[in-house]
């Protein structure tokens, strides 16, 4: 409480000279002119990152931008731990690096969705089948005809667990499954869009493990992690990862009502609780398919580059092009989301951009990606030929950083835009 009184906006320490807390992966970054980006354009993007860091709402930031398949930025700034709101003044400051793993939170859903589309590609499931075709017990209380595709596109009618349930329930998969099976849906025909913050991932995991006979981490390893040559990129962390991970911090002022109410309904927790839970060892030990995949920004950009390239990575076929198309094509149009409380465009697994402006900036109708707990932005844009991962450690909602966050996304799009845009 004393810490909050001294720091009411919950801001992190900010270095006077951002270069002193910055890391540039010079071995990976190519000359931007090779992919039709001006060197000054890269500098403009990085200056926008520094301005976002200077708000104090993001103790650590890592950014990887690929243009035409080549890395033009792979950089990090700030501290992975230490120097954040609530940290002791004498706590060791662990530098943020481009190799630091970060929890993707809801951006994990994009990866889980791709696993389901891979199952469909291999003929193990049909996404138009009801969940109850694979798991009959799910069909209770009118849910018999809710399909896998509706779960993927947030039209499955089960956007949240009961509000009275403890967050400890997330660690008991059998109890979660009982609750989901017993849940009364808000709609059974896919007619109501309501973002499934946590629930959908558990349903998809259950189906995946039923049809493969393997755990979701094993299937992820076989399908994506090993072929893409990832170091992290899996649910949870081993002991080495736990020692390297970026700590999450609740930053900025508390969200006012009704935003706070909507957040609690979606997540089951406010930002302070979400940060505290995500820093616990049991969160890092768990498998939560909608929320706790860990990766670096470069790994996340690599995943989206593979999708941008039609399912291919370094000459190796990961997914068929038609599978990528099915995963990223719009479903249902721009519709008011009853959880997010804003109009949204979704595919069966991804958040889509828009015209004249969308999540991924202006004129991004064909862009697809996913946000992770407000401030993590991961996307690919076919028009600009970019795959981007912006990973942050500050869980700030309505704070003074938002204009600078929007300005950073705009700079990425502006500097990488073809002449037609």
Automatic annotation (TrEMBL):
Per its UniProt record, what SUPFAM superfamilies does this chain match?
beta-lactamase/transpeptidase-like
Write down the superkingdom of origin.
Bacteria
Check the record and name the InterPro entries matching this protein. Beta-lactam-related, Beta-lactam/transpept-like, Beta-lactamase/esterase
**What sequence ranges are listed for the domain Beta-lactamase-related?**
49-396
Instruction: Kindly list the residue ranges recorded as spanning the membrane.
Output: none
Gene3D superfamilies per the UniProt record, alphabetical: DD-peptidase/beta-lactamase superfamily (3.40.710.10)
Q: Which Pfam families match?
A: Beta-lactamase
Q: What is this protein called?
A: Beta-lactamase class C and other penicillin binding protein
- Species whose genome carries this gene: Hahella chejuensis (strain KCTC 2396)
